[in-house]
Structure formats: structure tokens, C-alpha cells
Write the C-alpha cells for this entry.
Amino acid sequence: MFQFSPGAKRYEVLIIGGGPAGATAALYTARAGLSTLVIDKGLTAGALGTTSRIVNYPGVPGPISGAELVRLMRDQAASFGAEFVNDKALRAELTGEEKKVWGGQGVYLGQAVIIATGAMGRARFVPGEERLLGRGVSYCATCDGAFFRGRQVAVAGNNDEAVEEALTLTRFASRVHFLSPTPELHASPHLAEELHSHALVSFYPAARLQEVIGAETVEAVRFTSAGQEQVIPVEGVFIYLQGNMPVTDFLDGQLPTSEGGCLLVDSNFQTAIPGVFAAGDVLCKHLKQAVIAAAEGAQVAMAVDRYLHGREKLRPDWSK
């Protein structure tokens, strides 16, 4: 399914996740002169990005929205040369000297990887979702949108990632039914405006996806909106709902985790695979505060700098 691209650009540091941990790590690695790429799903894809009002981030007088705070962090990292790409990590190959991460837009190559994907993953499936995965159910419009040319599809979600994917689907689908679990979108204003004004999009506020219906392939979705149950015939369902589990599905079990699915790291934030590090909420070892995640981002960046320059031989000690 994934093809290696020999022309893909190589980086010294790949960072998966652009929240406070990932953006701060990018600031520090870029400032250290390391070529850095951040792969991220969007400003409002993470926990901080969905926060509407912050007043206690040091040095940033509030109130400020989480999305704007993330934007400030990213802009600062970019000012030192860090690159950002809006993409979703679908698979990673972490062993070997060169690490590979596959996304919807291609393959990314790096000498070191920092996993900062946070803890917004889902633990439970909607009825019919798992059974019809790959048969109409998808998590990547960039990857699968072309298969639904001229067909009706549904998108479930409310953040930047969901809106951008829905807008991508309008290039192919005859109608996009957007099911937002909240009355208002938690997306960037310009994206929300584009979605609401698009002629091919039908918007359903406060819509709870209840079931994906179909025998062999997706045939319809059942959901509730404004207290009323509805069933809409569709041939594709793209799901971007959020939970509170560490986002590690793209790792395919390559790294050890705790019983709760949290990544295990040593005192240098390195995982069991040399050159692969992790920080932030994906570790589940601290209070979920942006300032703490940002501090870990700085620490992990310095550990990566030491690793790449051979100034300190880092060995995992998480099993001790």
C-alpha cells in the first residue's frame, strides 16, 4: 500500500505532532541547526488546540485561545527554520539508522524521530466502524478520497483535521454530509467559514454518530441531531472523532507501552529504539498542562541533539 519515494527529502529530525511538546521541540532542534520537519494534522487536532480560553501560560497574557497559542509556538519554531506539513502519520518504520514515516501526502525520512502525538485517540469504535474499515470506512480523505468520486460520503468530527479532510472530499464526492459532535465547530475560523459556505457540504450540528450501516460495504450512517435520529445513505464514512487515549496507532506495536497504551521512555525521553524519542501527553506521566508538555519538548530536543552529535551515548533504561 505504501511506496518508498527515493526522491523524498531527508531531515535530521522528524517530529510527529505539532502541539506544545512538538512545537517546542521543533523550536529547540531548529535553533540548534538541525533540519527539522513537524508532521501535524492541524492547529485544532490536539488537546491544546481545542481549548477556547487560556490565562495561565507563563509569559503570555491571557485570555488566548489554545489554537492561537499553538500558532505562536509554531511561528517561533518556523522563524528558526523548522518546517511544518499538514499531514497525518499513517505508518512508521523506526528501526534502522534512517527512520521512515508515511503520511497521506508521501513518505518522510529522518535520522531521529520525536513522537509528540498527544492523547486524543479513541478507545472504542462506533458500531459497524471496525467491521467496515477499508470497505467504506476511512481515516484519511487524502488517501482514499478519489475512490468516492461522484458518491455521497459522511465526515464525523469538528476540528481542523476533519474540516480540511471534508474540503478535500468535495473535490471528488457528489455530497459531503458533515456530522459535528458539537453545536459549533472547533476549527480555525477561515476553515469553518469555507466549510459552511461550500455548496457540496451539508452541515449537521450536535450530531452524534451512532452506527455505520452496511452488509459488505458502507451503505448509510445513523446519527442523532437536535434530538432526532436520522439515517442518510452514503458510500463512505471518514471519522475524525477524539478521545483521551495516547495516539500510537500508526506505530503498529513497534514500541513498548504501559497497560494504558502510554509510550515508555527513559530519563532522556528515548524509547526502546535508539533515535526514537517521545514527549508530552503520549507519555501519560504528568498533569495535562501545556507548559509541562512544552518543557518536555525542550528536554527531548536537547536529548536528540546529543544523540545526533554523539556527545552522549543514550541507552534505554525504561526496563530498569
Observations:
- Helices lie at 20-31, 66-79, 141-144, 160-169, 189-197, 290-309.
